[in-house]
Design a protein that fits this description.
Length: 168
């Protein structure tokens, strides 16, 4: 295999390494919020699809690097003869992967923040803010007192029925 192909393949290998790091590091942190939004099983599916889209963007960033010069495809020979330029192209592949992955994350964060703001504004304007679960605070004391009265009445009935049977 020519030296040119070695540099190209090493660049793609590094791009896949960057994609793997993005998959596990970013994907691991994004899994919990996605599962909170879409439920446990739906969150797994959307979390995996988000991770795969992220890796695809990283790989596209690495593949988008042009390995020829201004003269078009005929410049391959001039790059293939210069190891310094091949190394530059390899590092361009890695930086392109990082750039595409970072842009994907920024666009995703921006869209998520925008959707959250629109949904929060819609809830606030409709007045559909949820009340906390459970009985209201003022009824807690009266509920406890009523429960205590019911329990004492039941206990008194049980005592009367058991003492009535003792005299027979």
């Amino acid at each position: 295999m020519p030296l040119f192909m070695w540099y190209y393949c090493v660049g793609l290998g590094l791009v896949l390494l960057v994609g793997t790091v993005f998959y596990f590091v970013v994907g691991g942190h994004i899994a919990a919020p996605i599962q909170g939004i879409f439920s446990r099983h739906g969150g797994r599916m959307w979390g995996r699809s988000f991770r795969l889209m992220l890796v695809a963007n990283v790989v596209i960033g690495g593949l988008a690097v042009q390995w020829y010069g201004c003269g078009g495809y005929a410049d391959y020979e001039s790059i293939a003869q210069d190891e310094r330029r091949m190394f530059e192209k390899t590092t361009e592949q890695v930086s392109g992967a990082l750039r595409y992955g970072s842009r994907f994350l920024l666009v995703t964060a921006w869209i998520s923040a925008l959707c959250f703001a629109v949904l929060a504004h819609g809830r606030a304007s409709k007045g559909t803010a949820k009340e906390p679960a459970g009985p209201p605070k003022e009824n807690v004391a009266s509920h406890a007192a009523a429960t205590k009265t019911d329990q004492s009445t039941t206990c008194n009935r049980n005592r009367k029925s058991s003492t009535a049977g003792d005299h027979l």
